[in-house]
Amino acid sequence: MTSISSLRCLSKYPARYPNPIGGGQATAIELGLTSEIFILFNYPCQSPIGQKRYLFGQAILKIVPLKVAQKVNLCYRFGRRKRMRKDIGRIICLGLMILPVALMSAPEELSQYWQDAGGEYAFAKAVNFTGKNVQSAESALLEDEQFAKLPDGSELTLDFGVVTGGFFEFKVNLAKPAKIRISYSEASAFARGQKDWLSSLSRSYRELLQRTYEVKQSGWFQDPVQMGGARYVKIEVLSGQIEIDAVRCKKTFFQCDPNTQGWFLSSDEQLNKIWYAGYYTVCLDTIPSEQGGKNSKTKIGEGHWVIVDGAKRDRLVWSGDLAIANRVVYVSNARYDFAKDSLMSLAKWQFDNGLYPAVSRAELGEKVAGDFLEYSIWQVINIYDYYLYSGDREFIKELYPSIIKAMNYHDLKTDNNGIIEQPFLRGGMNYSYSIIRSGPLAYTNALYYIALMDSAKIALDLGDIGQAQVFLTRADRIKNYFNQYFWDKKNSAYLDRKRDLSHHPLDGNSFAILSGLADRAKAEQVLDFFNQALKLKWGDQQFDKPYHFPRKIPLADGHNAKYVMPFINAFDALARYNLGRDDEALDLIKRCWGNMIDQDPNFTVWEWIGPKGTPDRPTTSLAHAWSAGATFILSEWVLGVRPIQPGFSQYVIEPHPSGINWAKGAVPSPRGLIEVSWKDSADRFEIAVNTPSGDGPSLKLPTKGEQIKISLNDNLVYDNQTKIPNPTVMSLSISAKVVEIELKDGGNYQIIIEKNSEVRQ
Questions:
Q1: The model's pTM
Q2: Would you say 635 and 220 are in contact if contact means Cβ atoms under 8 Å apart?
Q3: Which CATH number fits domain 117-251: 3.30.2310.20, 3.40.50.1450, 2.60.120.260, 4.10.320.10?
Q4: Cα–Cα distance list, 514 to 299, 567, 576 (Å)
Q5: Which CATH number is 651-759's, of 3.30.420.40, 3.60.15.10, 2.60.420.10, 3.30.565.10?
Q6: Cβ contacts of residue 199 below 8 Å, gap of 6+?
Q7: What is the mean pLDDT of each run of 10 residues along the chain (761 residues)?
């Protein structure tokens, strides 16, 4: 049985997952009740004095003098295992005493990857298509009183250069009223628009992608219906004649600063584009909370800004989508308030039975979508994610009762062995909504196991030992039966469902690895199976064999074989990094995300990739936040910065070069920016880090063979299997592939690992 004292918190994937594989890929830290990591001080509470205030997101945080901090009730102290710091400088009180993040600009060279020019308006940049009889089409690009002339029956398609969103405006000149049709598209191939089948599911996007208006006077004409995501705008003259001087979009999405706190740059041009495409996509999908849903006019969430699934649709807060989108926020602009308000938009509308809604309800009504058992589980995981990155303990305390309520509801859906069963129909809906998968699913159970482990850590952090043990006992039941239910020895992979011997899913197998339910041997076999049965040129497909349906239904193949879901491919890549199969992980990133950014509309990532490696229908969202996973993966696994304990009280720097010559960047944390720059060659690995004050990081760096020397700030700390004492180094160990160094304090460090000159050839 899993006990409280053996509960482990690991680097994020595997930040919080029990790591079955070892191999130096994750550092396990015990959270024993007497450990230095978890200590509660019960001093009388006193009012802070002499405090400073810092603006952090939308909250005013108080930095308390150390003497006062000692007397604040329930102060949280993060120390290092095996060494108890006597100073009190690492105290974080009540989950809100978060140090201000230093604002630093990203290098000027990053501007080439940032396609949005900023400002209130985006302007059309090029003519994409000109119909017959259009005169001076280029004049529609500049507001200079030079007009493009569109006679009756003509059409003109303009290109904004990148997907943008908001209210589109047209500066026109008329002799008399004219009737026009305006069409919007994220890709040039889909200019005419179609009705969206998803409208019947989410009730969020019922407008056509084209609309007809009568323009009655000269001047600026604004389309009154907001279009959240479009790169191309087509104007067709249905009657009359119209002249156009300029076309612009009054942007309504969150204007992300290209000089964001978190950034990434490497020797691989494609990876740089991928990072910024994911970041920009999440910016497009961060909208005012009152501009969601139908016609982009509905209040859908809490706070001012929320993160939705797609720019053009559904424009709703979905918990599954936040699993990716929030983590992109954490490594880029660090707007924890956006993530927090999005999570609260779901938690506030929890059903009486404990189920978290899959989608923000607010003004949308009681039943916006199906029950989505899977998404209720995702909400619990996302709440823990927020805590891990932000360290906001007060938020966790606020939501803790609702977490228990949700997890008790989930437990009611388990069989006698503790395996959770996906309900049929409404409850059987999940992210792969075009395939109804019910009964015991490998994917849902692996996800549920993760949620149980996360819930146990939250309970432990809040001192609720009894409830933590309840969660761990439930997790043990899944662990005892998971492989018995789902492992297919013949195909060396996990089945989709217990009674289905034909389908082996990407999602269930990826999460079996990430959850730790697959041991090392099975995990390796699963990834071999991926390479043999699921690998496509544009990513890894959903299933090895297609599901067949008795009758044609809308989007029946939308999540089937030959389709690639970047949402799940992100966890596939994480599973590969966890097993040390770095080359495969990087190859997958380049296949899946590289394929998207190299095609129109470029610069954004898509909801899914069709069976030909392209967008397959006009209604597919081509700026979809759940597909931005490569952005945080590059920051956490290539640059290498990941949190180990909440609020980055402990974190790891673990680069994975995989043929990349160099990388540099920064990851924001509540403690301050963590800046990293590394270079890799056959005989030498060099890394420079600038880390916040307080406890130093753990570093896991690639070794260069058995006969190596290691220097720290020009001082040798290791030479030919001999350790050289250094007061800055807490520990140093070397395995066949990894050099592990734990530094005592934060600061500026340069570490060089190189082969000894006598062994170089």
A1: 0.85
A2: no
A3: 2.60.120.260
A4: 36, 15, 9
A5: 2.60.420.10
A6: 205, 206
A7: 48 36 30 27 28 27 30 29 33 30 58 86 95 95 94 96 96 97 90 43 46 96 94 96 98 88 97 97 95 74 92 91 98 97 95 93 63 92 99 98 98 97 68 77 98 99 98 98 98 93 95 99 99 98 80 53 91 98 99 97 94 87 97 99 98 98 98 98 97 97 94 96 96 95 98 81 50
